[in-house]
Amino acid sequence: MCRLSAPAPLGTATTSYAGPQIYIANSVDEVNTDRGPKAIAMDCEMVGGGSDGSLDLCARICLIDEDENLIFHTYVQPQISITNYRYEITGLTEEHLKDAMPLKDVQEKVLQILYNGESVGRVRLNGGQARLLVGHDLEHDLDCLRMNYPDHMLRDTAKYHPLMKTNLVSHSLKYLTRTYLGYDIQSGTHDPFEDCVSVMRLYKRIRGQAHNLEGIVTWAATNSSPKVISSSDPWRSKELENMTPDELYKVSRPDYRCWCLDLRL
């Protein structure tokens, strides 16, 4: 098992936290990758809104680069009233969010970092110089941020097939970190920097694995989204029985895009 040391959390105490409430790196151009697009990891911490406090509202966000350098960190002022700070999980109180950055400003800053000066059309087409976005359950985080980012630019540890259960249900980030990285996270309050480091390490570990790429690159060029076929489908079972060995080999190729291909772009 790979065993890495856990990163030092940012903390939440407004009096003892050594860094500024809002941290924005001067540049993210120092991210180093020999090949392929550069990646940014993001994690959000949620508080509760609505009458019962069950509505997830982003109250804290963190972004890091591939070298685990902090790029952006701030508390976020939600657009609706907070009814549950979920203190046991977030460690946040009203004091943390008193002068927090408005959600609209957070959206603009995050998109500025991710798009990296690239046009929207180019990013949607092939990514260009934009950053890959790494995270755990990114759809949920982006929804809470009220943001969109192209699916082909997302690297989600909650949705990547080799990291999921056999029934394609997601594992928790805590489980994935313990299993594949060898240390524990989220033992007390959740820390977004700690979670960012975990998802980035998971992504880089999988991206760096050596695979037999024969046929996979051609497949990836013509398949932008995964297809899940149920083996319990009787029609599908009959179809498989009538296939030749060559046809069976073709359909047995991965039905997801392997992250190792990011180094070949």
Automatic annotation (TrEMBL):
Keyword Transmembrane helix among UniProt keywords: no
GO cellular component terms given for this protein: nucleus
GO biological process: rRNA processing
Residues spanning the signal sequence: none
MF GO annotations: 3'-5' exonuclease activity; nucleic acid binding
Nuclease keyword on record: yes
Matches recorded under Pfam families: RNase_T (PF00929)
UniProt KW keywords: Exonuclease, Hydrolase, Nuclease, Nucleus
Subcellular location: Nucleus
Stored InterPro entries: REX4_DEDDh_dom, REXO1/3/4-like, Ribonucl_H, RNaseH-like_sf, RNaseH_sf
CDD domains: REX4_like
The family this protein is said to belong to: Belongs to the REXO4 family.
Protein name in UniProt: RNA exonuclease 4
UniProt organism field: Quillaja saponaria
Taxonomic classification: Eukaryota, Viridiplantae, Streptophyta, Embryophyta, Tracheophyta
